[in-house]
Every structure is written in structure tokens, then in C-alpha cells.
């Protein structure tokens, strides 16, 4: 299977190239920003643009930026090539275009491709269903490297959505409390709180806390190496081939729904 990588010269791109080889698949090539070149160990061709990448690939993995999600999803639909999308922080409009493209080709979009994180999300939904919002406040604390540009992280938002789903509603219906500062008043019942920490080169740490008057329950996932994301993304690329058009998640890839 020919797997293409958008952003092959980046940190994730290099790891993806390594995992594609380890999985016994073929690296179709990759794209990168002008002036960037992938390391020598990335043994696929450097393609001139994203259109050439989709034309040369059976499936494309994109871990670039939210701004690239729309053009890449559009190209995926135009070329009939499945897309594995790992960009976080998509706007409602960007998410809409990705969903429209998934009506023509299969798309796996996940905030986090690490298998462990997705297991944590499944547990978060089950815990939220069992712990009444009136008694258990949900708080999500995440920390990432100092270069990360969006907050809360996509994984933190996914945790919040899992909690809300367990309580039979959307995150928007539950309400987000993020970036508290000054005299904010008492915490509203049923809302989901977010705190974002940035510093150093932390790959990713997420803790979901259910806090009641009589007990606290904490669910934590720590990533020590970005390779876990690459492993999951290549697994998703192998899984998506032959699927019907649709918008899938890592939960689908892991057979959890």
C-alpha cells in the first residue's frame, strides 16, 4: 500500500515515515514547506505539491496544521483517496468541509491517535455516565510543549466531549469553563472545566478529574514519545483502505464502536 505524508520533514512526518517502513508498507512520498527537506532516512520522493501527493498515494496521512485540513480534505475527495487527519483545533467551518469530503471518501479524523488516549476517552464517557453532574464536577488539566499554539488541546476537548456524551449532551450544551481569572463567581453545576499548561518540551499530559465532596477520581494519560501517535496513524491508514465513505475516528479503528 502506498502511504503519502503531508509535512514529511516535520517531527511527526519523520516518525510516520519510519512507522510506514516498519509496518511493511510503501512510502509514496511527502510534501513539505519550501526550503525544508526530510532527513535521508525518509526514503520516499519529495513531491511538488499536495495534489501530486494525493495522485501518487493510496492513502494520505496529514499531521500538519488546521489551515491545511480544508485543502487536503478537498483533494482527498477529488482524487478519491482516503485521508487520515490528525490536525487539531479545526474551526466549525473547517470541520464542516472535512465532513462534506467524508461523504465521498473515508476520512479518519482524531484529536489523538495514541491507542491509550482513545481507551481513556472511552473510560471517560463511562465514568461520566455513572457519576452525576450534580455531585461530581469534571475538570480537565492538560500540559504541552511551549511551541503548541492552540489551547485547550484537541485531546482535552475530546475528553470534554466524552464527558458530555456520557451525560447525554454535547460539550456546547454542558458548557465550558476555561481560562478562569479574577472574581469569576462560583463554579456552575454541570459545566466542564479546562486548564491549559505550556512549558518545556512536554509531549502531552492529560488528566480528567471528577471532584465530589467526598471523593476525587483522576484519570491520567501521559505521552513520552510522539511515536505512539505515528503508530496509531499508520494503523488507521491500513484500516481505512476499502472502507465506505464516512467520517471515522480512532475508536472505529480500534474496534471500540
TrEMBL record:
Belongs to the DapB family. Its EC number is 1.17.1.8. (S)-2,3,4,5-tetrahydrodipicolinate binds at residues 145, 154-155. It catalyses: (S)-2,3,4,5-tetrahydrodipicolinate + NAD(+) + H2O = (2S,4S)-4-hydroxy-2,3,4,5-tetrahydrodipicolinate + NADH + H(+); (S)-2,3,4,5-tetrahydrodipicolinate + NADP(+) + H2O = (2S,4S)-4-hydroxy-2,3,4,5-tetrahydrodipicolinate + NADPH + H(+). Catalyzes the conversion of 4-hydroxy-tetrahydrodipicolinate (HTPA) to tetrahydrodipicolinate. It comes from the Bacteria. This is 4-hydroxy-tetrahydrodipicolinate reductase. Coiled coil: none annotated. CDD domains: DHDPR_N. The gene is dapB. Residues 116-254 form the Dihydrodipicolinate reductase C-terminal domain. Residues 1-113 form the Dihydrodipicolinate reductase N-terminal domain. Keywords: Amino-acid biosynthesis, Cytoplasm, Diaminopimelate biosynthesis, Lysine biosynthesis, NAD, NADP, Oxidoreductase. SUPFAM superfamilies: Glyceraldehyde-3-phosphate dehydrogenase-like, C-terminal domain, NAD(P)-binding Rossmann-fold domains. Its main location: cytoplasm. Homotetramer.
